[in-house]
Structure formats: structure tokens, C-alpha cells
Amino acid sequence: MPDNLVSIIMPVYNAAPFLADCLKSIQQQSFSNWELIAIDDFSTDASFKVLEEASSFDRRIRIIKNTKKGIIPALSLALKNANGHFITRMDADDIMPADRLLKMVEALNAASPKTVVTGLVEYFSNTEVSSGYRTYQNWLNQNIQAENPWSNVYRECIIASPCWMLQTQELRDIGGFDSLEYPEDYDLVFQLYKREFKIKAVPEILLKWREHPARTSRNSEDYAQESFFKLKVKRFLAFEKPIENLVLWGTGVKARLTAKLLLENSTPFTWMDLHPEKYPDGIFDQVILPFREIEGMEKVKLILAVYPPKKEKLKMENYLKNLHLKEGETYWYF
């Protein structure tokens, strides 16, 4: 396995309108010791033709046709064919800033084993990027530079799917992509979290993330909100054992989705809210208790499905601190 060779793995499905720009951004990298393994995932547009033309002029670009439809099989096939010491994922509709690979390789070479390198992201579009995507972009960039990014692992996917780099063997050692569930980008993050990888953030934009109506994340049930919650609840129950007194705070949409999944899993929990009097009949046949009931409980693990403004959030977190609860250890935002 050549030193510092970077394997770029990229599933490609009907990305023809954006693929040439993506490939150009890879070919213009200041770090030139890379191979691109592009997996054509049964495209029905001109994607394969665009890849063929690019590979005819650049031998670093390898094209493989997927044998089983889907992003997880595509990523698994790419990993199987990767020769690099380092590995990174790219999506066929996005753009790599020119120094991305260089910055990531430098960061990994300077890091201890079991480190995942990521960087800042920036959404762009031919039209205006929605406020929701901008909010997520800003939150993501802030979180990966925080002291403990993992503390928010159950709130959102904390590493952008096309903006990470690992040692290839370390990815293989944790099972690669074969055992992942959709949404696979989030599940990979959970596997890194479980195995106590460190996150090292390069404080520069390393991904131009294209927003457009045809994005898979916008059109596949695998990336719908319920799919994310099914996965996060499943991983939470598996990773945060023992769970003796599980408490859920909040009664909004996400709290109710979390409660529904806990009930489907036959997981006992105590449901609390700031205003339980609004729900005299409970929700889902569950009694809603005042939040202060938590003060009389021991060995609590708390799911926070509430998102107050900054001032109220600080007040709430100070209250939890006085109860000797710690974010990322005994309470988590969902």
C-alpha cells in the first residue's frame, strides 16, 4: 500500500449535470498522489460516458460498475478496490477545494492512530440555499471545532458524508461499509464513535456541498427524518448501556418520534416536559410528568428533545449540571 496514496471513493448515480465539475475539482488538487474509484451505480444518464472520457485522459481515475444497487454496496465495492494508505469519500455532485487532500493528509500524518479528519463545509447552489441548510452548515462547522464534538452525535450527523479521511486499514478494521445501515453516512459516524476515534478538524472549507432538488438525501426514504431517528435510537440503546432510568424531555415532533420508537422497541422510559398540564391525557398513553421529577431519580440517562434559545439553553444546562448530569455522558440532545 503506497505511502500517502489517497483513495477517493465515489458512488455515481445520474450525476451527469454536475460530474464534470466534480472531476475537474479532483484533478486540480494540489496533492496529486490520489486514485479515484468511481462506482457507477446503474446510472441511466450520461454519467458513465463522462467518467469514461475523464479516465481516458487520466489513469488515476478508475471506473467500476456496481453489482448491487445502492450507496452501501457501491462504497463497499470501492473500499475493496482501494489501494491507498488513506481513504476519503466524495459525492459526484460536489466540489473539492484545491487544497483539500493536502490539508487532510497533513492532518492525518500528524495525528495519532484512530483519528478521522474532517473540515468545514459550505453549501452552494444555482439558486438560493435554504435557511435550514445554512443553519445545519453553521452548526456542523461549529460543532466539529468544539472541545468534544462527539457530545452531539445523537443530535445530527456530525461529520459531512463527503468530507472525511481515514487510514484505509483502520476503516477496514472496523468493518468498512458492509455492516452499515441507512443513512450510511450517519451510521459510519456511529461506528467511529463506538470505537472512540478522535475527530480532528481542519479549520478551512474542504467541501463545497451542492444543494439541488435531485440530491439523494432529498428524494430517498433512506434519508428521511424517521430513518435518521430509527438509526439514532437503535445506536443509542446499544451504545449507552447500562440504561436504568431513561428520561425523555420534550413533547414536540422529534420528542414524539423518539417516544414512538422507544415504545416500538419496548424500552421503558419516563416522559417529562416543562408544561405537562397541557397533556392531561398524556401522549401515546404515556403520562407526561413535570421536568423536576428528575430530581428524585438516580442513574438517569436523559434524552433532550428540546431546543431552547441560547439563554434558556444555558439555564437548562446549568440546571442539569447541578444534578451532576454531563452532556455526552448522561444526557444527549436528539
Automatic annotation (TrEMBL):
Pfam families: Glycos_transf_2. The keyword DNA-binding does not apply. It comes from the Bacteria. Residues 7-142 form the Glycosyltransferase 2-like domain. One of its GO terms (molecular function) is hexosyltransferase activity. InterPro entries: Glyco_trans_2-like, Nucleotide-diphossugar_trans. Keywords: Transferase. This is Glycosyl transferase. It comes from Owenweeksia hongkongensis (strain DSM 17368 / CIP 108786 / JCM 12287 / NRRL B-23963 / UST20020801).
